[in-house]
Amino acid sequence: MAAGLLRRILDLVELLAAHPRGLHLQAIADALAMPKSGTHRLLADLSSHDYATQDPDSGRYLLTTKLATLGLKHLAASGVVDVAQPVLNRLAERSGELVRLAVVDYPRLVWVAKAQGARTGLRYDGDMGAEASLSTTSTGIVWLAHLPEEEAVALALRQGFRPPGTAGPNAPRTLPALLALVEAARRRGYAWVHETHAAGTAAMAANIVDPASGRALGNVSIAGPSARLTEACRDALAPDLLEAAATLSALGPLSDYLGALAGGRARDAARSG
Fold first, then answer.
1. What is the pLDDT of residue 263?
2. pLDDT-derived band at 259, boundaries 50, 70, 90
3. CA–CA gap between residue 257 and residue 236 (Å, rounded)
4. Is the pLDDT of residue 128 over 90?
5. Omega into 176 within 30° of 0, i.e. cis?
6. What CA–CA distance (Å, rounded) separates 158 from 174?
7. Dihedral sign, CA of 246, 235, 100, 159?
8. Are 226 and 52 in contact (CB under 8 A)?
9. Residue 259 or 214, more confident
10. For position 253, what pLDDT does the model report?
11. 248/210 Cα distance (integer angstroms)
12. Which of these, 74, 143, 161, lies nearest to 104 by C-alpha position?
């Protein structure tokens, strides 16, 4: 398969993944800057292999669950969730909040597992499989804090800042504001954010570090309503968060898989850059 054709197929898959209710043919062609005829051929190829389908009522094209199933199979086979889940469950029980595991899929951070500690009242629950915002989440900020500043800046600018109205009132809008949060996380040993990602929420995160290379492989975070996850609560939970991160860092199967994933993607990015 020619590289250009593969790139167009992957762009199509990523576009449809961002629109779970589907898109009409013309909208897809416009988004990909392709002729309708070529777009239709790609959709037909995906549909013939059961990766996409067309809603007979609306005419929209959408992905099937086949790709999601493959991803879940891959994670299950890697053992990442199996070895990490008990640690996440324990931290969720102690904190009474949402605990998530994010992994470095360079140059992105993706949430892959969670445990919900809140049983009643307000609950914060983010989407699994989503790419973390590097500038507004504790997950993103603590990863940037582990990287050389030049690399951290390049990754943050690559993703960009959240547009006005799509983040919390305290979201950084400039590079100096973001770097101040990164430096605070560096000094503290974990990141803390208050109403940066969304109004009424707060979060804290600590890196999972490969013992052999010293590279951050991902991180573990606690997130919840800001009325409940206060600075006093943060200070009380910090030892538990850091203990969970250290436990995950020491888990052999987790470090082996995440180290290979993060390292391989970083090398690919360096070669392409």
1. 56
2. low
3. 32
4. no
5. no
6. 14
7. negative
8. no
9. 214
10. 58
11. 9
12. 143
